[in-house]
Amino acid sequence: MPGIKGRTCATSIRGLIPWILLFNIMLLLYCLTSPSQVKIRSSHEDTCPLSMARLLKKSSTMPSQNAESQTQACSPKVNIMFMKTHKTASSTILNILFRFGEKHQLKFAFPDGRNDFFYPSPFLCSQVKDYRPGECFNIVCNHMRFDHREVAKLLPPDAVYVTILRDPVDLFESSFHYYHRAVPLTWRISGENKLAEFLNNPQAFYSPEAYNSFYLKNLLFFDFGLDNNLDADDPRVMRGINNLSRRFHLVLIAEYFEESLILLKDLLCWSTDDILYFKLNARKSSSVSRLDPETRAKALQWNGADWRLYQHFNASFWARVEAYGTERMKREVNQLRGRNAAMKAICIEGGEAVGAQKIQDGRFRPWQPVGESSIMGYNLRKDIDPRFKTICEKMLTPEIEYLSNLGVSLWLTRLWGWLKDTIY
Ligand SMILES: *[C@@H]1O[C@H](CO)[C@@H](O)[C@H](O)[C@H]1NC(C)=O
Ligand SMILES: *[C@@H]1O[C@H](CO)[C@@H](O)[C@H](O)[C@H]1NC(C)=O
Q1: N or C: which terminus of the chain carries fewer CB neighbours within 10 A?
Q2: pTM of the model
C-alpha cells in the first residue's frame, strides 16, 4: 500500500513541476505588463461628457435595411456595458455585440495584449487599451471583475448595463471542469469523480486565499466584484444583490437564452437580424458530468450566495417576460428559432457543431481548457452561397479570433495558450 501511495505521490509531484514553472512565467509576465495600469487611477472624471452621447445619437439613427426596425418608434441603442460572466453562454452574446459594433463602427473599450481586463484583478479603466482620462467608448464587453464606478468613467450616461447568469450548480460544474487544473489545491484530489470528491469535503481542497480559488466558489459573486466567500445568509449578500439590481438594466438568464435575447432586443431597440446566433464555446455533452441529486444539493449549498443571486434575477426575469407579454414572447422566440435554423442551414457544414479535431479551418477553432479539447466549434459550409459568406464567417468565429480580427493584440493570451498546449 505505501508503495502505491508513494508512486502516485511521485507522479503527481512530477505533474506539478511544469505547472509551477508555468505559473511563475505567467506571474512574471503579469508583473511586466501591469505597472502601466496604476498610473492614471483616482482622478476627477466620473462619467463621459454628455456630448459623447449626443454625438453618438447621430450614428444610432442610421438608416436600417430592416423594415421591422424602421417602423419602431425607438432608435437603436449603441452604448452598452455587457458584464461578461464566466461559463454562462456569454461568449455567444459577445459574438452578437462584436457583429453589431463592427457593423455600426462603434468604439469598443478593449483590453491590451489579452482577452480580459486583468481578471481577476478588479477592473480599472486604465486597463483599457489606449485609455486616457476623458476617453469615451460605446461598448465594454470583455471579461472583468466588475467595478461600477470604474466602468462608468468609460461610457456615456445613457449606457445600458446588461449581464447574464446561469444556474449556479451547472455553472459550478462547468467552471470546475474548465478551471480545476488551474487551482493548485485541487491537484491533490484523487479518483475519477473529482467534482464529487471536492464537494464531499470542500474545506480540504479550498481556501479563500489559495491561488485561483474563486473559480470554485460563487464565481458569479466574484465576477461582480463582491465577496465570494460570504455565507448565503450574511446580510451583505442581499445588499450586494440589491446593489447590482440598481446597476443593471437587464439580467439575462442562460437557461432561457432565446427569451433573454428577445428582452435584450426590446431593450436595445434592435432587430431580429442583430440577435441571430450560433451557440459558441459549448462543451461536448460527453464531457459534462451528470450530477446526482445529492451532489447537486451540495453544489448548491457550497455556492449559496450565487444561488441567492440567481433566484433573485430569475424572478425579476420572469416578471419582465410577463410585462413584455407571454404570447408575444412565444411568437418572438419561435421566429428567432426559425431564423437561426435557417442560418444554420446556410452556414454550417453538416448543420451542427463538431469536436475541435474536426474543425478544418483554424480561424474557427475555439480556445480549449487546460489539458482538454472538449469545446466544440463549426465548419463553414464548403459550398457556401457567396452572399452569406461574410456573415456566416463572423457568426462562427470564436471570441479570441474575433478579438484579433477587431485589432486587439493578444500576445499574452496566445503565449499562455501555446505554453498550455505544449505541456499537455
Ligand atoms: C452597496 O452599495 C452601497 C452604496 O453604493 C455601498 O456602500 C455598499 O458597500 C454596497 N454593498 C455591497 C454589499 O456591495
Ligand atoms: C426560474 O423561474 C421560473 C419561473 O418562475 C421557474 O419556473 C423556475 O423554476 C425558476 N428557476 C429556478 C432555478 O429557480
Answers
A1: N
A2: 0.85
